[in-house]
Amino acid sequence: MEKKAGQLKLIEKIGYSAGDTASNLFFQTFMLFLMYFYTDVFGIPPAIVGTMFLVTRIWDAVTDPLMGMIADRTNTRWGKFRPYLLWIAIPFGVIGFLMFTTPDFSVNGKIIYAYVTYILMMMVYTAINVPYSSLMGVMTPNSMQRTVLSTFRFVAAFIGAFIVQGTVMSMVKAFGEGRETLGWQAAMGVLAALAILLFLFTFFTTKERVHPPREQKNIFSQDIKDLFTNKAWVLIAGATVLQLAFISIRNSAMVYYFKYYTQDQVLTLFGNTINLPFDTFTSSFMMIGTAFTILGALLTKTFTKVLDKKNTYGGFMAASAILTGLFFLVKPENVLLIYIMQIITSFFLGPVSVLQWAMYTDTADYGEWAKGRRSTGLIMSASLFALKLGLTLGGAIVGWILGYYGFVANQAQAADALLGIRLIMSIYPAVFGLLGSALIYFYPLNNTMMIKIEKDLEARRIEEEQD
């Protein structure tokens, strides 16, 4: 019955989702703090950091699809994708820890160390996250169950974000005791250990059930051709680049925005006065956003039933982008308004993040339905590359803009630098969000189409089993 209906047990949904908590302990740290860490803690010029982010994507352009094809060709008693959670968990944690270790090198030595550790981290991130993301596409053939699974996954991802936002700055301060470099090293050591345990939990609680057609032969040139002629994948991948650039620019800007622009503030609420030092303001802003992102994510299934996946993704991203753009008009002392806008923006982003990966698994079904070939690993690895490209593009833009407007770390900023910080918190990310929303308008897979594809594929598999 389970095989026919594609239903998943609760423990498997929780187990799978734990992997995204593990991944996001680092991914969220990269989005929120990595640019700040490199400029204000490690002491690398922002424009150089921005260029480093973009240059490293050249190597990712090779390793991401390569990892997908390797995973598609892997055959073990644990399946194609699960084994990598077991094999790569420890290297993932160790290299993540080394990224935030700060040896006392010259500026050039620091740049080289940053390049090496960042590239290694992106490689192990690929080696574990391509199989992890692909696993969702083979745990069940049921499209709506995958949407539910994606909801679990992204609630867990946001829990990872919540942990990062709520604890990292506090751990840095507590462990460092005035030495920020030591504090970052210790804090990331804690997160690395937790990530390793969570990935192992995912390995032991999940199972692969969907397999490629029995007669399928994996040919490199055919795999690549199938990928780039899959219209649905091309469109959601393009939207992902723009979506992650939107999120990355905004998230990377937050620490700078509160440290240098809003600075310490006071919130008056119900007659009570609350002091908000900039670091408390930053953490609370992030955490309240994550809480409402989780709420939005939990309601994804309801929204998609009424509005369809495509319309929910595009419409909610547009709403988030417009609200983000309006941040340019907000004054530092408008503390309550800053929180309210963060709540609404984050709520709309919840379903967007959930639907992104659910729509990718739909494109894998679409590719098999249209061409008779299934390359889940390649599709998800190329999708991960799109995600990392958007993340990197956003980080690079932040570095370049800070450099262009004359930002200098750890001192009062000139008017031009403050303008640049306000722009990367508002207008620049909003442009990318609106472009991503516009692109998804052409995405061809709606709920009705996916029901037809699911039924056709189920009939094919039954026929294959009878042969």
Give the SSE layout:
Layout: H1 2-5, H2 10-41, H3 46-72, H4 83-99, H5 107-139, H6 143-176, H7 180-205, H8 220-228, H9 231-262, E1 265-269, E2 272-276, H10 278-298, H11 300-307, H12 309-325, H13 335-371, H14 376-404, H15 415-424, H16 427-439, H17 447-466
Antiparallel strand pairs: 1-2
Quick structural gist:
This protein has 467 residues and is mainly alpha-helical. The protein contains 17 helices and 2 strands. It has a two-stranded antiparallel sheet with strand order 1-2.
Mean pLDDT: 89
Structural class, by secondary structure, is: mainly alpha
Helical fraction = over 70%
Largest sheet: 2 strands, antiparallel
Q: Over all CA atoms, what is the radius of gyration?
A: 22 Å
Low-confidence segments, ≥5 residues, pLDDT <50? none
Largest sheet strand order: 1-2
Task: Please report which band the strand proportion falls in: under 5%, 5-15%, 15-25%, 25-35%, 35-45% or over 45%.
Answer: under 5%
Task: Work out the number of β strands.
Answer: 2
Q: Globular, elongated, flat, extended or rod-shaped: what is the shape?
A: globular
So how many helices?
Answer: 17
Distance between the termini: 21 Å
H/E element order: HHHHHHHHHEEHHHHHHHH
